């Protein structure tokens, strides 16, 4: 008896419309923690407005 199991996977190496990306770069050496916090908060709640 042989059971054949097929697993279908997606190609997950590309961004999709559900993904959110942002970046923070500071040339002046300021603390960017609050900017990162609010950026992550905005990504978490996007689409809920």
Automatic annotation (TrEMBL):
> Mind listing the UniProt keywords for this protein, alphabetically?
Glutamine amidotransferase, Ligase, Transferase
Does the keyword section mention Ligase?
yes
What Gene3D superfamilies has UniProt attached to this entry? Glutamine Phosphoribosylpyrophosphate, subunit 1, domain 1
Q: Name one GO molecular function term.
A: transferase activity
Annotated TM spans? none
The Glutamine amidotransferase type-2 domain is annotated at 19-49
Q: What EC number(s) are associated with this protein in UniProt?
A: 6.3.5.4
What is the designated name of this protein?
A: Protein containing Glutamine amidotransferase, class-II domain protein
Give the species this sequence originates from: human gut metagenome
